[in-house]
């Protein structure tokens, strides 16, 4: 050990005795630091690293910046945007090496809370992760060198930092978890339970990935149940970049079914698939101001390639309007080039800072985005609805998930568009609405001359002088649909898959093969299973015979139930003797013998029955929770009853804001981190016939008392 | 106009008279600057912006940095990595605002060549885009304020900067185009003609996108011909982010055919499709050092989301080994979980600084990547070859492109793998080899304990103690295949598509409808075309009847020839009278009447003939250019003759380096910007029987005289 330890002077002034001091090889990242400590052999068995981040706020040009020093646990998510908001400082950016040198005479790898001294503390703003002070962990802090480390308790760090307060401004103790939660107005209530999940992160085999506890009930902790089902059914795995998930084959195959189905239907409409680059220059991205405003807080920026800084940062597409439309302007030269209808299956990135939720809110997600240009509004209008009808069919006919088609309010429509149509889903367990998929008419907002300038000569103008700016639509359906399906049908045994999208529709399990059964008897049963599977596969039923050795039938039942396979066939010696099989439905658990004769006809029929029953049950439940309400005092109690309301509404934006505000305020008190409970407009259903006719001038909006226009669904939502 | 103009002092000291001075609204980007100038009404009609970039090289911690100021034309691509190399400075990074304030007391939006004065010039290194001095353009430079601009000639800028040399170090005049070209060892010779294409950029409707001149011959300027064909056939369009391209439906549909074909064949092998995130944390990316070394210079980094800096930069996957394998370690718990075979269709990003070329070398490209894990090497070996055989079929059976399967030399194998198999293509027009697709055995390099630690208990070890680290493969096929297909079959009329991948296989064009023809006669012909198309579509022939009004048959012929439709049927009144149609083959131009009777059988047969003929012709040509050579002195002349050589080779890496070096040196002198002409090993063909047996100890390597091992293909390549 060297005789002079940098940073040791700090202990002379306080009562602190570090738990250990370790010298090790130089480190340049948290990973190499941890590695070096573990390799040293002298580090405590279990410890957490402390990170020290230095930010520079935006300041007037010639003013000296006051750096913000953040001391946080390794696993704490320090979101500079949120922190800046809290401290009321603009544009916090990670400080340059020069800044560190200037203020601390240290490089970033040597920085630690010990860099804060009587001399430096007054010159900076210091923020500390409050959870350090209450933690029982041992923390590693650099001894002002990247190659040596002290181990301190949370209390030691507290003593050190609090001691400095006499020399400068007050210490900012920040609960970073709460900071994040504060910005999550629309996360489901159940999500407030996410904290224990977060805790498990640290022990997971893959750093940063989350291991989910098992055996949680859907009704008790919906958010935990949901992730649990996804993991156990092998639909998805957590990934070590927050907000990103791995789509495993069991989920991806559902997406492939949807792709094939949708492609087969848009192709006859003249839509062609294509691929546009994932990158957008900032210039192009920022062309449509209203539109970009909706997306810019979530745009991910590439600023470096290899070791070269890019001259201009390049965005990853959050959606492709501005990526594609400059080329529409180029390609559309005459009305003969219309309609132009392109679609792409791709991934887009929206770097949300709200709590991510698999399939429902993720930083990268898969979708299709269709972009079309038409000569007339009438033609565009028709396509908007044709596509929406396809989306309804994806939900209802493939996924057995009921939706209500309608139009979005002005407030909720697509940024930069003319109007937005939607299919609105519903999650009964939380009583929240969820937007399913949207089909937008963009009008001429993107084609007009000051925007992308997409026009043709008007073929109907006899002078040949007239221009028509094209009418555009865009429409998208994402992997979110899979999440809604899981939430709708899953139960406490796990996933429940609708037959039409299940990659395995039928599993055949040999049963009753006790020790008494002869080898021939065993073989006869297994062969029968294989034979049945082959026969069913031949008629297009996706079937698997589960002949795995070393697993009991009970294990297999549980395994496939968890994975949601719609139908199980049990085949045992007794069944064979009777020339039958026992069918077990996943959706309702009903067991029933089925003659082997005619099974290639009866099984497909049974699968269709399951599909229809699943849809009917879900639809009945949804409709039972859509409550017409005409008095304001009934709105919040109905919402609290896990329903959405449908009210005769005035369609005014101020009223919509007011409804959100008042319903949020009136809601029952909740966990302080729970999302706001205000109700948004979900849609104005196309089918108004379910409710009494609105009498112009007589029917009033229950929220503001003005004349009502149409019945409109309002609800808490995802 | 304000009475005191910042920057005007500069004119008092020189003979320069600016062409104009304009005050305008403040600007914060090149786009807003140009906009403001154009809006001002006082700017010259045509001008270029001058950009002034300030870089900071990496310096010792406490040394004062010497900034590098780069003055360049708006359209010049300043690649900091290459510039740094040229100036012998490490890690050039764009300087911070503080740096600009410190050195010039200016913000980045006000900076201009005028910021260089007697005072500032000696403190910095100044680099100027040499093409400014020789250009006849008028250049906009900021008058030391983001809201005012001088217009100067290249000569004015020259006068200004050269005048400063007396006060400090010499000015660096850099040809940025040549700088880029210098780093392109493997671009095709024809590519040196890319400069005129680049020139056209500036006039293109979409800023930054390239318009291609038309009518270039394949034999004369291959690179220009190639891009020309792609654009005119509507396969692809240039995009305003360099190195990225738009795949239009005509090309994307080919990719879909390949996807469907390949999916149908890997599924029975037990491969499942899935989707992994596009982002990789730097920690995970850097896990395998050899592997990452191969990719790190080209990795694109996301460092910012919305307005928040990320704590750690996140990479966009250049390939997914390190993305996926941590999860393989998690999912593979027992030998029962093996083999694990996942595939994904996705896009990857490799930010190459070499000249991009559509399909062949692009910064983002589409591909499939398969990743599998096996219990034994034998099983992994078999799969490597099974997949390679599928790749061969994609090329030969779908795209009619001949390839030679073989194994890569140690030097050319996949970074971090055990061995690489490949199908090697050939572009006869340039005489260069081109790697088609590769199937790698990774061995246990990624599964070993210090890497991803992917193991199972050895099921064959009676003690139950043994571990087996899994054997892994990865294999990929990209949209590059489409580029090779275009290069192989295209001609001076445009694209030529093999029938099996053409989205329109047959086009039917009504002909002979002169003014004399009655309306009924016209209708009869058009109806016949429709009827024929319907009949052919019904039997699975993708057919379009081109009944567009207002276009002559000649226009239509040309249009569809350019797009490469394999077969044209001409239908006119005379044909109808004879109950026949005239067939015109795209591949060889042969015209031949075909009876309408039995056309639903004869057309599919004719398409298969075309497919087979295209392949045969291409294969004959390829094989005629693979020349066995046993004397060193024959190597370079053979290469110069647009051939690849196959030599009895010693398989030693030093010899391979030597061959490259010597063949490069010996090549004929070329344009100074031409890529290096050294020959690489392309592959060691599996089928060695085409050449005389190698006699151990007797057959010698013609390059080094050591004992030869196997016949090996060497050639110039892409």
UniProtKB/TrEMBL annotation, chains A, B:
Molecular function in Gene Ontology: aminoacyl-tRNA deacylase activity; ATP binding; proline-tRNA ligase activity
Q: Would I find Oxidoreductase among this entry's keywords?
A: no
Reaction(s) catalysed by this chain's protein? tRNA(Pro) + L-proline + ATP = L-prolyl-tRNA(Pro) + AMP + diphosphate
What HAMAP family does this protein map onto? Pro_tRNA_synth_type3
| Organism whose genome encodes this protein | Sparassis crispa
Give the classification, highest ranks.
Answer: Eukaryota, Fungi, Dikarya, Basidiomycota, Agaricomycotina
Q: Which Gene3D superfamilies match?
A: Anticodon-binding domain, Bira Bifunctional Protein, Domain 2, C-terminal domain of ProRS, YbaK/aminoacyl-tRNA synthetase-associated domain
Question: Which ranges carry the Aminoacyl-transfer RNA synthetases class-II family profile domain?
Answer: 254-498
To which protein family does this belong?
Belongs to the class-II aminoacyl-tRNA synthetase family.
What this protein is called in its record is proline--tRNA ligase
Cellular component GO terms held in the UniProt record: aminoacyl-tRNA synthetase multienzyme complex; cytoplasm
Keywords of this entry:
Aminoacyl-tRNA synthetase, ATP-binding, Ligase, Nucleotide-binding, Protein biosynthesis
Stretches with biased composition (Basic and acidic residues): 661-674
Q: Which CDD domains match?
A: ProRS_anticodon_zinc, ProRS_core_arch_euk
Superkingdom of this entry's organism?
A: Eukaryota
